[in-house]
Amino acid sequence: MDDPLIWVRALHFAATMMVTGGVLFLIFIAEPAFRAAGDTQVAARVRSSLAWTAWVALAVTVLSGAAWLLLLAQRVSEQSVAEVLSQGTLWTVLTQTDFGLAWTIRLAIAALLAVALPLSARLRVVAITAAAALVGALAWAGHAAAREGAPGAIHLVSDILHLVAAAAWFGALIPLALLLFAVRHAATGLPVAREAVRRFSPLGILSVGTLVVSGAVNTWMLTGSVEALVGTDYGRLLTLKIGLFLVMLSFGAINRLWLSPRTAGAPPIAAGALWRIERNSLIEVLLGTIIIVIVGLLGTLPPGLEDLSNN
Fold first, then answer.
1. Separation CA 16–CA 186 (nearest Å)
2. Tens of pLDDT along 143-160?
3. What is the domain extent for residue 180?
4. Domain count within the chain
5. Predicted local distance difference test score (pLDDT) of residue 258
6. How far is the C-alpha of 36 from the C-alpha of 16, rounded, in Å?
7. What distance in Å separates the CA atoms of residue 216 and residue 214, rounded to the nearest whole number?
8. What's the alpha-carbon Rg for the chain, to the nearest Å?
9. For 223-262, where are the alpha helices, taking DSSP H only?
């Protein structure tokens, strides 16, 4: 865990998911909730907070992506950071490797997303497409991109879907908590909160379903057997990741099955349910952050299937 690349990878994954989830949340959940509730004052305050969060996440995405590229160039060349910068190694990695090509494309996507982030009606399709592409293209920085043929294509598509679904769920949890916190302190915010929670449930169900299916495919592609899952460092970390995901899923199920229906009740009952949903969402964010750190570590290890075959 003392490898800086682990933490840079984790930060980049988290920031990318935050910006993608923030865009999806604002367009598909927050804005329709504002229109349904008709509360322009609450809408203006929450919209500003969500937009600021998305801008910060996009900036961190770009900066952490640059740091990832620099550390990778240093590792490949076995040079110091100063030598990587002064001797053109960074440029070589950027222009003459598949990783560098993927990063160049992702930088262009980030620039397009920055243009679309004001999220005017004319740019929303562009913002959604760019946000999904920005996180989905991370698949080319992982183990899925190393495989060839039909299995490699299946793995790559599965990984893309996994990343987009993770961003839609995990990345939208902080915006949801921010919205619930803001409306909890607004006298007229209850209708906005109710509508936002109602609209978040289908997004969460779709995301979780996609995560389960794509996660099963990825697990099989990377381990291939129970022995590789329990008998290698990669497999054991992957098992821990799956366990934490199931804990996250349990909090999501509590929100969906028990707390969400209570938001339709009398104001004191609804307010209490909304506060618990906000708290549970932050717990899910904490668990998701641990999962992302594990993902950062997994990317530096050989897959369980490969590790087992080499021993």
1. 30
2. 777 777 888 889 999 999
3. 4-310
4. 1
5. 92
6. 29
7. 5
8. 20
9. 226-231, 233-254, 260-262
CB 37 within 8 A of CB 195: yes
Q: Specify the residue for token string 């961003």.
A: 167
Q: Report pLDDT for 42.
A: 77
DSSP calls for 122-161: GGHHHHHHHHHHHHHGGGGGSGGGG--HHHHHHHHHHHHH
Burial of 276 (0-12, 13-18, 19+ CB in 10 A): middle
Q: What percent of the chain has pLDDT over 90?
A: 57
In this predicted structure, what is the pLDDT of residue 80? 86
Tens-place pLDDT, residues 250-279: 999 999 999 999 988 888 888 899 999 999
Q: Are 237 and 181 in contact (CB under 8 A)?
A: no
Contact 305, 223 (CB under 8 A): yes
d(Cα 51, Cα 35) in Å, to the nearest integer? Answer: 17
Contact 93, 69 (CB under 8 A): yes
Segments in the chain below pLDDT 50: none
Give 258's contacts (C-beta < 8 A, 6+ positions apart).
Answer: none
Residues 212 and 255: their CA atoms lie apart, in Å, by: 19
In the prediction, which pLDDT does 191 show? 87
Q: How many CB atoms lie within 10 A of CB 258?
A: 12
| Measured distance CA(18)–CA(23) in Å, rounded | 9
**Sequence-distant (≥ 6) Cβ neighbours of residue 10 within 8 angstroms:** 292, 293, 295, 296, 297
pTM over the 0.90 mark: yes
Q: Distance between CA atoms of 205 and 210, rounded to whole angstroms? A: 9
Q: Which helix or strand (DSSP H or E) is residue 44 part of?
A: helix 40-77
